[in-house]
Design goal:
about 750 residues, mainly beta, 26-stranded antiparallel β-barrel, elongated
Length: about 750
Amino acid sequence: MLPDPQPMLPAPEPRLLTCRTSALALALMLACAPAAALAQDAPAETASAEIAAADDAAIGFEADGVSYDSDTGIVTAFGNVVMKRGDQSLRADQITWNRTTGVIEASGTIRMVDADGNQLFTDKIELDDEFKAGAMQNMLLALREGGRLAAANGSRAADGTILLDRAVYTACAIEDDQGCPRNPSWRITAKRVIYDDSKKQVTFKGARLELFGARLLPLPGLVLTTDGRPISGLLIPDVRLSASNGVEFSETWYQRLAPNRDIAVTGYVYTEALPMLSAQYRALTSKGAYQVTGYATRSSRISISGNSVGSEKDFRGYFFANGKFQFNPNWSVTASGRFASDRTFLRRYDISRDDRLRSMIEAERIDENSYLSIAGWATQTLRVGDKQGLVPVALPIVDYRRRISDPLLGGKIELQANSMAITRTSGQDTQRAFASARWDLRRITGLGQEVTFTTLLRGDVYHSDENALTATTIYRGNPGWETRGLATAAVDVKWPLVGEFAGGTQVLTPRVQIVASPRLRNLAVPNEDARAIDLEDSNLFALNRFPGYDRVEDGVRFTYGLDWQFERPGWRIATTIGQTYRVSSRPTLLPDGTGLSSRVSDVVGRTEVRFRDFVKLTHRFRLDKDNFAVRRNEFDATIGTERTYAEIGYLRLNRDIGAGIEDLADREELRVAGRVAFARYWSLFGSGVFNLTSKNEDPLTTTDGFQPLRTRIGVAYQDECLELALTWRRDFVATGDAQKGNTFQINFALRNLGFR
């Protein structure tokens, strides 16, 4: 058992109206006080001097009084003594300085600050004329990074290190708001601590972790740095219980290779699976930063249909790397790569729930008036039912834009050139190139209307083959070479009307837009990037409501709507509503159910309500133009404070689109999350995702209106130095060897120790 260093971190004492603080607690309050409060004004009459030390570095001091014994060569300063040497300073009630030996002895209430900003409080200390500490009593070291190290006594070894006996370390406050002692949430006790000022590190011998007063874990080889540098060593392990792997225990070794490079290696041990190993390497260079992460194990794979692939175990793993490099103010390169050995590895080992892994590389040049991007994209699908051979690889994608000023009318001209090549191993291949010119002119009339004139000219060239392999007919286009030209003209008018309302300010903005384009050969060219079309508030006034370049709205249309915004102290309300009228009654390429296929579109809108930082509500909708049926109903709400809050998200898409267009399938889902704080540091939290899609909305769904997908409940403790949480999660859907069931996890983090 270690000697109890309790006097160094005192426990609260019974009190009535006031609380007596120890000298150590007083030192702690000084350490946490603002610098201005510590720099006390010296008396009107002070003694000051500057004396050369042994290494010719000047030591200056101020005090209320100074005496000098010429026979012994001892200088004695007393009363508010301040001694400085470079970036180091020492404050004490009294200091004696032997100029012959160079020994400095300070006593009383002592505060010493080193060059790194660490603060030492003690009752008595001995230093040399280089401000290196020697023997000290009843000391507290307040590290710049926030930790506090206390010891009964300390001494200086022959190699210059400080040896501390009966030491205790914590990153927690040891006083409450009233300045009274309190027990820290955690602390580390040690038989001995070695403080090496030259290496800026603290080494613990015989260290143990205490949590809420209970001694839990030994911490062999624990080392801290006083300047905030990360150091090599073991991190606190993770413990988890899951349906797929049983009990999981993981431990990480962190190795700092250089000031700009490190690596972390983690081992995972399971009761229901073979061990796994992962590693992460990170580096920072003069041009940018990058990281590489890998996971590797062996286990039996189960197909997403539920059948075992084989009895022999196969290699399974995951690779992830990304980075960005800035070569000069204009040129940069960004890259990322993600690849998994199979479709269930990430979910089984709870690494990620992404159902697509995207890899990319992009070189960009940006200046004041131009932009150039040369990129490539590839995606690995992890979704059930998707065929990898039908997933496209886009390489290269080239996009160039240049903005110039209109010399005649004063508008802006943007020139664009774009090309893309898409290949599939078992599907349609498409190549596309186009060039365009867009002119915009914005003017404000005398009545305050904002009028924007726009014209767009574009020419397209397409080539495609294997078109029959695309299942959806309207996406295929004609095989071989196809060309297309388009021209668009638009006028957009806004009229903001400002006035007072309900103690605040409101802005009512009617808006009208006219867009005209000749009839286009849309179905003659493939559709690769404009499939997920849907009328929303975000694209209501767009020149082209399609999300990409491959499809363009033609004909003449009027779009009209209202924006309303209201603000008063603490409140903000903003709403938008609008609709489109198409002049021609001929059929369009827009599928029924998108809200845009008829002469008169559906009605779309959005409302957002905010009350300070306590309430945020957002509602988006689309109403059928004929019967006002709700085709889109989306609601997101956040209510509460940072510690106690509730979040609700609801989405229902009821567009009545045919089942043959997979990109526009209907669905309904509910997302809830919340946290309730109780006591001072404790809280309960939970979340859930529920699939509410019925067979009427999606005939292919396996549920009938209600299916929990994932739920989570937990309890957490969090104060200024400790985070502790116990989480229960249940997955209701199994995919291959990623089984449904319960998962329990313990999260544990200690501030200022570099632990998770």
